[in-house]
Amino acid sequence: MDRARRPSCTVCGDRMALARIAPIERIHELRTFECAKCGQVDRYAVKSGSDAYWLLMRETLLPAAER
Ligand SMILES: [Zn+2]
After folding, report:
1. Which residue in 24, 34, 45, 67 has the fewest CB atoms around it within 10 Å?
2. What's the CATH architecture for 1-57?
3. In this predicted model, which residue has the larger pLDDT, 54 or 63?
4. If you measure from the C-alpha of residue 45 to the centroid of ligand 1, how many angstroms do you get, rounded to a whole number?
5. Residue 23 near residue 30, CB atoms below 8 Å
């Protein structure tokens, strides 16, 4: 399980805190992380399971409801 994994901030490199998890597709969930240091918010589409991977979401890829 990688539920406790905390990625590094894409701006300053500090560890980010998990702010929210929301399902976005059948196999993915959207994890929102906030940086306490610089305020950056990064979102990752995460697939769990044996072939788990994390995909950094750019703003332009977010569904309209997340903007
Ligand atoms: Zn930061």
Report:
1. 67
2. Single Sheet (2.20)
3. 54
4. 19
5. yes
Total-model pTM: 0.76
The predicted-structure confidence for 25-61, as pLDDT tens digits, reads as follows 889 999 999 999 999 999 999 998 889 999 998 865 5
Ion ligand 1 residue ranges (Cβ < 5 Å): 9, 11-12, 14, 35, 37-38, 40
Instruction: Give residue 51 CA to ligand 1 midpoint distance, Å.
Output: 28
Q: How far apart are CA 67 and CA 60, in angstroms?
A: 9
- 44 Cα to the center of ligand 1, angstroms: 15
Question: What residues pair up with 54 in beta bridges, in sequence order?
Answer: 46
